[in-house]
Design a protein that fits this description.
Elements (H helix, E strand, L loop, with lengths): L13 E4 L13 E13 L10 E16 L4 E8 L5 E8 L5 E6 L2 H11 L8 E7 L9 H17 L5 H13 L5 H6 L4 E6 L7 E5 L4 E7 L6 H14 L1 H24 L2 H18 L4 H12 L4 E4 L7 E5 L5 H9 L4 E6 L5
Parallel strand pairs: 4-7
Antiparallel strand pairs: 1-2, 2-3, 3-7, 3-8, 4-5, 5-6, 8-9, 10-12, 10-13, 11-12
Helix pairs in contact: 1-2, 1-3, 2-3, 5-6, 6-7, 8-9
The chain binds (R)-mevalonate.
Keywords: ATP-binding, Cytoplasm, Kinase, Lipid biosynthesis, Lipid metabolism, Magnesium, Nucleotide-binding, Transferase
Subcellular location: Cytoplasm
InterPro entries: GHMP_kinase_C_dom, GHMP_kinase_C_sf, GHMP_kinase_N_dom, GHMP_knse_ATP-bd_CS, Mev_gal_kin, Ribosomal_Su5_D2-typ_SF, Ribsml_uS5_D2-typ_fold_subgr
């Protein structure tokens, strides 16, 4: 077992340009940046909320926040897409964190999350925060956790308060997701690689890197964005009605994560793929798959993927397929059905 610190270091992936933090706050333009990774859950989503283990990875892209002191009366945050520079939302928050508001776009939760992050720091002046998001939002790739980590790291770095980052991220993720398992934020702050994650009710947090050979995957956006909080709530309702059955399904999902951890270490791709298919079937029993997600999984398997499953909360969003020989054929087959995707290689030896 390794401690969470090994992959969750608040001061990592942050840097300050032009001046040291906290020196001469007014005279110089002090700019800090923080980065958070998007994530791919390979095994265990939803069941992880009930204390079962999961296997997941941080992606190189995610969110980058630029943070600087401002002369405005309020803290301001602007969220842009890296793909087209479109402004998704502009939100602000009073210096006393009292009045939050949305200036532009759909930022209801974003401004509450911004206030939640700010509440964990001692800010001598108001802040201007510019966030660029490098993945689509709401499709299971952990955009909110990437954003939370990037913003909290940037603010922590600018103010010289990196020890506050962890709790600030937690508060922000609670705004976005209600009762998150912590998996997304851990991956957003991770180093490159695949991790075994377990936070059972009665034991300590375990986050262990899996020493797997480089892992090549295809990812596509099979459905529209969906709310993680709504999907988690839907599973909770099903569990209230059928507690024994849903606990059994969650147990199966947790067991696939444990088995996958060993299969990944051995580079046993045939087994990893089969376990992904089993995990997907179990997620279907939880009610979080959709017709489009199931179809994208079938198409991927038909094009040579060794296994495929939804990734993230479901209800829409992304599918991940195992393509050890390269993702080209799967991406082509998806494109023929109108789904755009990308290939990603996860290697704990890369940065
Ligand atoms: C969402 O990315 C993953 C879920 O398991 C929720 C969570 O872990 O908090 C569905």
């Amino acid at each position: 077992m390794v401690s969470s610190r090994e992959c969750f270091n608040p001061s990592e992936e942050t840097f300050v340009t032009k001046s040291e933090p906290q020196k001469d706050l007014g005279a110089e333009a002090v700019v800090a940046r923080g980065h958070g990774r998007a994530k791919l859950i390979l095994f265990g989503e939803h069941a992880v909320v009930y204390g079962k283990p999961a296997v997941a990875a941080g992606l190189p892209r995610g969110a980058t926040a630029t943070v600087q002191f401002s002369d405005a009366a309020v803290h301001q945050l602007t969220l842009r897409s890296a793909l087209d520079e479109d402004v998704y939302a502009r939100v602000e928050c009073g210096a006393a964190l009292d009045n939050v508001g949305v200036d532009a776009g759909d930022g209801e939760r974003l401004c509450k999350a911004f206030a939640a992050i700010l509440g964990h720091f001692d800010c001598p002046k108001t802040l201007q925060v510019d966030v660029t998001i490098e993945v689509p939002m709401g499709v299971g790739l952990g955009s909110s956790a990437a954003l939370s980590v990037a913003v909290a790291r940037g603010i922590g770095q600018l103010l010289g308060q990196p020890e506050q980052v962890d709790e600030a991220v937690d508060a922000s993720e609670r705004v976005f997701h209600g009762n998150p398992s912590g998996l997304d934020q851990m991956m957003a702050a991770s180093k490159s690689g695949v991790y075994f994650y377990a936070r059972a009710y009665d034991s300590e947090l375990e986050v262990a890197p899996i020493e797997a050979p480089a892992l090549t995957l295809a990812v596509c956006e099979a459905g529209p964005a969906a709310s993680t909080a709504a999907m988690v709530e839907m599973v909770a309702q099903r569990r209230l009605r059928e507690s024994q059955l849903i606990d059994s399904v969650n147990q199966v999902i947790g067991d696939t994560a444990r088995a996958a951890s060993a299969a990944l270490t051995d580079g046993d791709w045939a087994r990893v793929g089969e376990l992904m298919d089993i995990n997907h079937g179990a997620l279907s029993s939880l009610g979080v798959t959709t017709r489009a997600i199931d179809a994208a999984c079938h198409v991927a398997r038909g094009a040579g993927a060794l296994g495929a499953k939804l990734t993230g909360a479901g209800g829409g969003g992304c599918v991940v397929a195992l393509t050890p020989g390269g993702a080209e054929d799967v991406l082509k087959a998806w494109a023929e059905h109108g789904w755009s995707g990308f290939e990603v290689t996860i290697d704990h030896r890369s940065k």
